[in-house]
Amino acid sequence: MRQRPAVHRLTCGAFVQAHFWLDENIFIVPLSAMGFEHGADYAVRYHSEIFGFPPDKEAIASLSNQGKDALPVIAFIYFPSDEGTPGEMERVAQPRLDRAEQLLSWITGDDLHDVAFLTATSERLYFRVVPPHSRRRMRLGPGNVGEALAGNLSAISEAVDADERFAFSLSLYRDALHEKNKLFKIARLFSVLEALAYGLKEKDVGSRKAVKIMLGLEAGALGQINFGDRKIRYDRIELSGRLRDKLFHGARFRRDDLTAEWQDSFDVLTEKPDALIDCLMSDCELEFARWGNNASKARDAGLKKSV
User: How much is the pTM?
Assistant: First the structure.
């Protein structure tokens, strides 16, 4: 049976009342809620393991009923102009589906999470699920397990209470982690570092220089990436900071905005953005730990400015 080629992205987290066409290629369809029976089942198992007996049946039924409308599901369906392999169709669809999902998040105020993809070619159907992403790590410096981890988190919590700017930086970091557009994510992560480094900014010390001073990278935040048969050198703070400045002021960041020596580093943004994202995330996480341990240059400078 031949069918119309399409890429279906199933998401959960927002409620939409009716189906509609977002544009000529994307159709949005609200589906029945996933409900929260798996959550109720887990809570019952936890109760049984901790207390040695399950809750009564009425309590279980009530718990399941409370969550029956939880996790509403929306299907974003992209109809391509040309059919290709399932992988090609999904790659082409992804930026369009990301944009549609982002628009709906803005409208509903909810955060959507991908659940599964179904790609239909004219001949076959291909299906894959999307498990929740986790980096499966806690950074905060080496050796942070057990009491050391608890102590570090406690110190960061105290820093949050003591400094509203630090609390704001943590909030910016959380927002950056949810950003799907990789260039925007890079810019957001630099904004986190910029907010942390505010105390080091002076008349002759701009944001990028202040961030480097904070991180102890005055000589440059240099890195190298192998791309094809080339080795690309880049300065992650200069690159991400310039990108953020251009986006913030409504201008496109172009290769020509970099000096001739560093123009090749522009390819990091277009071809290897994840490498830059990982470095910036590490910078943020380690600076959070330094701040909590009262070992951050920026924290001391910020306290002096506020006096």
Answer: 0.73
